[in-house]
Amino acid sequence: SYLQADRIDEAYTAFQRAIELDDKYRYAYYHIGKRLIKEKAYDKAIEAFNQVAETEYADDSVYYNLGYSYYNIEKYDEASKAYKKAAEQLSSSDLKASIYVNIALCCYELEDYEQAKDYLYKSIEMDKDYDYAHYLLGFILYVKYQDEEGAQQEYDYLLELGSPYAKQLKSLIE
Question: Which residues contact 43 (CB under 8 A, 6 or more apart)?
């Protein structure tokens, strides 16, 4: 109820007391972390998610949100590591495709364009119609590799999908 009343500090203290009494309440930090993300308090969210990451309650959602928080404070290497842990725990190819795009974005920010490209190909392999992955791949091929043919192929596929990203990629490659 502290969380619902926007009393985050009191909720955090109450959860800490509960965890001291019984470690099974540690997953409560996940809910605090989610709330802190809404408030864009990413440093505090990272602290909360790390509390859960140290337990058997850590799952793909914990690592995804940890990656998201790190990404938003421009700690791309840490974000990438967290996203990779999230991907390891997933069996769903749709969700994994999305996480691979997030890893690619981290690689791009770290100027590791080859890795970014590899993760985008992995994403597309898992979900061939994932338009954002095709857009980013076309962008990287054109901007970082001057591969006009490869970018054009991604553009053509986006057109085939009827994706709004086609227009954005077209404006870049023309």
Answer: 69, 73
